[in-house]
Design a protein that fits this description.
Largest sheet: 5 strands, antiparallel
Distance between the termini: 87 Å
Oligomer: single chain
Radius of gyration: 25 Å
Structural class: alpha+beta
Strand content: 25-35%
Number of strands: 5
Strand order of the largest sheet: 4-3-2-1-5
Helix content: 40-55%
Number of helices: 2
């Protein structure tokens, strides 16, 4: 009877072992990198400050003029038009080299 039990246990692990390994691999490949990206975005959004050049998720480039809680006010274009966005709508902070290129493009 002990041999039958061991065959049942071995059968269980051979049937479900590959499935368990695949689930662990999927977790390692998909979920862990997404958590890292989410952490970087959260850090970037919490480090925003007035004067930063940013791009929104809609593709609007501007300079942060003020920040209140979850609201960011951007100055956009040569006339410095004020637009209000949610903090989560900021997709990235631009480099200083990109700033000069953007202003040259707007002037043309």
């Amino acid at each position: 009877m002990n041999a039958d039990f061991m065959n049942g246990v071995g059968s269980f692990f051979s049937s479900y072992g590959l499935l368990i390994i695949l689930l662990i691999a999927m977790f390692a490949i998909m979920i862990i990198p997404q958590r890292r990206r989410d952490k970087k975005v959260k850090e970037m959004l919490s480090a925003l400050k007035p004067g930063d050049r940013v791009r929104t998720i809609g593709g609007i480039y501007g300079t942060i003029s003020s920040i209140r809680d979850d609201v960011v006010v951007l100055a956009v274009g040569p006339e410095k038009v004020k637009l209000v966005f949610a903090r989560g709508a900021i997709s990235q902070v631009e480099d200083a080299g990109v700033e000069n290129t953007m202003e040259d493009t707007v002037k043309e």
